[in-house]
């Protein structure tokens, strides 16, 4: 039985006596009955107050326990969040370290590659020009290609200067036969025919078996024609057909020779 009902049992019993049949009513007079009822009510109210007080104390204890539990949960959540933050920082630091190591490795590789490239740029390398293979320094190769680029751009006066300087700067260069050929062509384009003839002949003396040797002989004849030296031009064209009979330049020379006659 609930404690409340156990506490009320005597009161209820007393109330039952009051409500008994009229045969027992003589035991109490009206004043006593009222006093009994009032006393019963007072005890009931006191019991209710005590029960309410106990319930309030119990509720207060429960609320305090719940509050403590909430604070504990908040503290626990804070600790968990702090641990997550620390873990995320550690992961981020590891990732950053991994990126830093990768970046250092890339830079090291780039530096090593750069050193190798600079070394290769300073070392002579094999080149092939007009069918002739030889070793050339990087600067030598760059200067020849730059001069040839100027010629191909149609800047013949500048090309003449560039090839003349090249021959002076690199007197033993494997490019020289080709440089003299293009120098002669630049001079022909600027109508410096005598200088062109001299350089074509220097080229033939240096490399008579050069791939462009037949063209050089034909160019000499063209310069002589421009100089109105027809006799010399015929001799040059005859020499061309004899020295390089199978070349395209020799074929062009034969046609030109027929017109000169």
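^ Assign residues to that structure.
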């Amino acid at each position: 039985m609930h404690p409340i009902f156990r506490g009320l049992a005597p009161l209820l019993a007393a109330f039952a006596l009051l409500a008994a049949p009229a045969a027992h009513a003589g035991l109490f007079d009206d004043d006593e009955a009222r006093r009994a009822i009032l006393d019963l009510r007072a005890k009931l109210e006191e019991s209710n107050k005590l029960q309410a007080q106990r319930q309030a104390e119990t509720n207060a204890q429960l609320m305090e326990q719940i509050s403590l539990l909430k604070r504990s949960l908040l503290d626990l959540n804070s600790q968990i969040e702090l641990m997550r933050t620390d873990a995320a920082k550690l992961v981020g630091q590891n990732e950053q370290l991994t990126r830093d190591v990768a970046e250092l490795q890339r830079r090291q590789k780039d530096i090593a590659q750069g050193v190798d490239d600079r070394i290769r740029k300073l070392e002579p390398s094999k080149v092939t020009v007009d069918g002739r293979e030889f070793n050339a320094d990087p600067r030598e190769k760059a200067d020849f290609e730059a001069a040839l680029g100027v010629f191909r751009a149609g800047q013949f006066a500048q090309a003449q200067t560039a090839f003349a300087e090249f021959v002076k700067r690199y007197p033993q260069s494997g490019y020289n036969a080709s440089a003299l050929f293009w120098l002669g062509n630049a001079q022909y384009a600027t109508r410096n025919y005598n200088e062109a003839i001299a350089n074509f002949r220097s080229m033939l003396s240096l490399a008579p078996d050069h791939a462009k040797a037949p063209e050089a002989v034909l160019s000499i004849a063209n310069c002589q024609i421009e100089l109105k030296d027809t006799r010399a031009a015929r001799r040059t064209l005859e020499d061309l057909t004899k020295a390089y009979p199978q070349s395209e330049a020799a074929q062009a020379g034969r046609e030109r020779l027929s017109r000169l006659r």
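The two ends are 150 Å apart (CA to CA).
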